[in-house]
# Entry
Amino acid sequence: MFPIQLTETAAKKTLGIMETEGKIGAYLRIGIRGGGCSGFEYVLDFANEVTDFDMEEEQHGLKVIIDQVSASHLEGTVIDYVDGLHGTGYKFNNPNAQRHCGCGQSFS
# Structure
């Protein structure tokens, strides 16, 4: 099973952004990097190719890739896109995170 799941809302929002930015056909790369106020930051980016270290899957019409190291930290994570009074953007529901920062963009 693929380590992360995007909601249909998150996938549709991403596909819309890809169209606006002229990135149709690209992959959504999901990952982590050291930093942020809690230790790791979530990373979303567009990529044109898959490496030997990536896992890939299509979700809701969106090609998604994640590297193996990030996958181990994000196993079981659900990514949604929210638009509400408490903020707009991608929301990571990561069951492996021991704590999150206030903005929700980093974890440990």
User: Anything to note?
Assistant: The helical segments are 8-20, 68-74. The chain has two helices and eight strands. Strands lie at 4-6, 27-35, 39-47, 54-59, 62-67, 77-84, 87-93, 106-107.
